Amino acid sequence: MITGIVEFFENLPPKLCSNCGKPIEEQHECYGNTCFTCIGLKDLD
């Protein structure tokens, strides 16, 4: 049983890019599903 909303979001699995399959280092709960590289922006790493 989930004890709180914060615990729920902390335990979400990494989000993967829908195009290349690499993990997205953004918030897991955001709506975007494509990494910066695949949309043509410079990667933040």
Give a quick rundown of the structure:
This is YhfH family protein. This protein is mostly loops and 45 residues long.
Write the SSE topology.
Blueprint: H1 5-10, E1 15-16, E2 23-24
Antiparallel strand pairs: 1-2
Describe it.
This protein has one helix spanning about 5-10; strands at about 15, 25. The protein is elongated and about 40 Å long. With about 45 residues, the protein is largely without helices or strands. The protein has one domain. The model has no long low-confidence stretch (mean pLDDT about 80). InterPro entries: YhfH-like. It comes from Fervidibacillus halotolerans. This is YhfH family protein. Pfam families: YhfH (PF14149).
Provide the helix percentage. 10-25%
Major sheet characteristics: 2 strands, antiparallel
Q: Treating each run of at least 4 consecutive H or I residues as one helix, how many helices?
A: 1
Q: Which word captures the global form?
A: elongated
What integer value in Å does the Rg equal?
A: 13 Å
Order of helices and strands: HEE
Strand residue content = 5-15%
Q: What do the pLDDT scores average to?
A: 80
Which features characterize this protein?
single chain; 45 residues; little secondary structure; two-stranded antiparallel ribbon; 9% strand; elongated
